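For consistency, the fold was encoded as tokens, which produced the following:
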Amino acid sequence: MYNRIKEIRNSLKMNQTEFAQHLGLSQSTLAMIEVGKRKFSDKHIKIICSTFNINENWLRTGEGEMFNSSLYEKELIDVFDNLNPETQQYLIVMAKELLNTQKKLLNQKHEEVD
């Protein structure tokens, strides 16, 4: 399990200090946990899973996917599966347009901050 904690942190592109702050731990404590020199509490497992949408079974056993799929993802897949092929294609086009609009808005926001 200790290797998986480090794997989560790396996947999230966080350093030990940033990740430890989310758990209420010090960087040195997290470092010792990642190498298996300190135990990891159930409380911290719950915090990791809820904060970062991590599959608890994967964290504990290594089985399954690292991340849980979101409720929105499941809902979107259900909706998509019930559309006819032409409407599915339209939804894909609209989703790509929405993504482009989001990127433009985020870029504008970054430019305003800089």
In short: The longest helix spans residues 85-113. The chain has seven helices and no strands. The helical segments are 2-11, 16-23, 27-34, 42-52, 56-61, 71-81, 85-113. The CA atoms of residues 12 and 66 lie 11 Å apart.
